[in-house]
Amino acid sequence: MDDKQQEFLERWERERETYRAWGEFVCQRIIGLLGEVLPEEGAGLFLRIPAKPRVKETPSMLQKAFLRKRYSNPYESVEDKVGVRFVVLLNEDVRTIGSVIEGATQYWTATKARDFEAEREENPSVFDYQSVHYVVRANPGLGVGHSTFIDDMPCEIQVRTLLQHAYSELTHDTIYKPTVSATPEMKRAAAKSMALIEATDDYFSQVVGVIKTAIGNAEYVERTLATVYQEITGKIVASTPLNKLLIDHYKPWAGADFDQQLQDWLKKKPYIAELLSGSELDIVFEIPAVLLVLFAISMTPDKAKENSPLADDELEPLYSILGLGFNSV
Predict the structure, then answer these.
(1) Which residue has the higher pLDDT, 27 or 164?
(2) Per-residue pLDDT tens for 261-314?
């Protein structure tokens, strides 16, 4: 080992634990910031694999600094002394984390070292290794507790989808960091796999979009029903499985302006509010979704009973309230 390598190694031994702490800091700050932009699900469900910092092994770092790259300033040039990987479900989730990383200017400066979407636009016919890589560098004077980080110290951040991560685990050490020569057949198989991953991600995004639209509609209906029910009864009720079941079945009767439709309908039938405000009601009257069931019966009494989650003997009183005969429609 020559003097330059020995100096590199001694400095690394002095600073290793500081880099480890820096990686922990970066990881926890990103998770915390994700929790702020994802208030409902939090980062715990958003991240598909637990994120934890990884300090580069000394032999690997020495080989990169002095053999593989031959940097003029080896120690400063190795930017992945510590790194952390975030694995999410979809490409749009990759962009969410990217926004968090780029926006955390109070902690670091961030540069995008690799962007697979930009590479795909530049070479649209090439299907290759995909991942977004950032390097964040500590702001001057930044620290935690009684410790101060080294100014401008780097941390590499990789952001991948779950499919990209699976592909990387399968191929990266052989195709992109070869311990054996990658054959044309291997490269072709890897490219076909990446093409399939891109197509699958597109399909997943379509499915998620449809699900979000459906969930959004159901949540809108549920909020409307809960608000109106509380206004007319004074009762604050929690959502229940039966409430959700009835909403899921009867939500086709709720239009885009259901809140206004419901208010207008109740004005025409004030006795419903009086009925629901009473005490000792049957259990079905104690959930906000009963408003939607009554609304559906009022609109289309014949269709409202088809495949209903409520049994005939549970539906019949609701028809009677509206002056309708259950068996005559």
Answers:
(1) 27
(2) 999 999 999 999 888 887 666 788 889 999 999 999 999 999 999 999 999 999
Single-letter amino acid, residue 59: P
pLDDT in tens, 135-165: 999 999 998 887 899 999 999 999 998 888 8
What predicted TM-score, i.e. pTM, was given to this entire model? 0.63
Give residue for tokens 């050490």.
Answer: 173
Give dist(CA 193, CA 164) in Å, integer.
10
Radius of gyration (C-alpha) of the chain in whole angstroms? 29
Give the start-end residues of each E strand in 52-149: 54-55, 82-88, 108-114, 132-138, 143-144, 147-148
Burial class (CB in 10 A: 0-12, 13-18, 19+), 24: middle
Euclidean distance between CA atoms 154 and 77, whole angstroms: 10
Enter the tokens of residue 95: 């962009």
* Residue ranges of domains in the chain: 3-182, 209-328
CATH: 1.20.1250.20, 3.40.190.150, 3.30.460.10, 3.40.50.880. Which one for 3-182?
Answer: 3.30.460.10
Q: What are 139's two structure tokens?
A: 């702001």
Taken as a whole, the chain contains a residue count of 329
For 114-119, the CB contacts below 8 A with 24+ separation are 116/164, 117/91
DSSP state of 279: S
The upper half-sphere exposure of residue 111, i.e. CA atoms within 13 Å in the direction of its Cβ, equals: 7
Reply yes or no on whether the pLDDT at 259 is more than 70: yes
